[in-house]
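Person: Please comment on this record:
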Amino acid sequence: MVRAAGQLAHIMERWVEMAQQNPALRDQQPWKAAVDKDMAWFRTAIKKHYGGDESAIAKGVLSAFEGLRTEEFAGRVDTFFRTKSHPALKRLYRDCWYAPMVELLRLLEAHGFMNYIVSGGGRDFIRQIAGEIYGIPPERVVGTSMSIGFREQGDGGDLLMKAKLDVFDDGAVKPTRIWSRIGQRPIFGAGNSNGDIPMLQFANKTPRPAFRLLVLHDDAAREFDYVSGAEKSLALAKQYGWTVVSMKDDWKQVFAP
């Protein structure tokens, strides 16, 4: 949730910048909503996204960073994480990571697991924090990606971001990406949304054991209380006995101090 909010905030910041450079964009969505800070519009657009309608924000997302070198994009993301704060949590996005999640990653490593991040969020966005916060190197981040092209420059060259989607890593795409990038079926899968269902199903391979974990966002005091976008996954967890972790009841601490 917080990571997704961070990515939206980062893109909104870019849309405002684009509208300042090209005033004609101010009357077009999603640039208009970004300039006006119209979060109601974005909530509706995100709900449509989870319902399978990408039209509301797709054009803006695809064009937001067109032409940037990959290193330029990485620098922008790094600056964002270290200087911008979550409006509700009142802490830097850099500090909005779940302490129990990192504890679990270290526990798994201690028992010989190799951990990966498989996300519907932007791969190159997550890579900027994956190593420092989660201890996961960039080559073990699998996520949504934009198309990238090569520009030759004498005896060198750059990778430039294109206004074209390469892979939207969500839902049924997650297992195929896991196989294409890793070449193995996981035995431990963790998620928090309906988009994680195929990944958790893929982890199961009878007769060997598999562990499927869902995080329930139900702590209004320390984080947020919602099930929107996770209804199907929670129903399947109840049906098949997947483990559900309550942030409210099972986590002594949500964020690192």
User: Anything to note?
Assistant: The radius of gyration is 19 Å. Residues 1-64 form one domain.
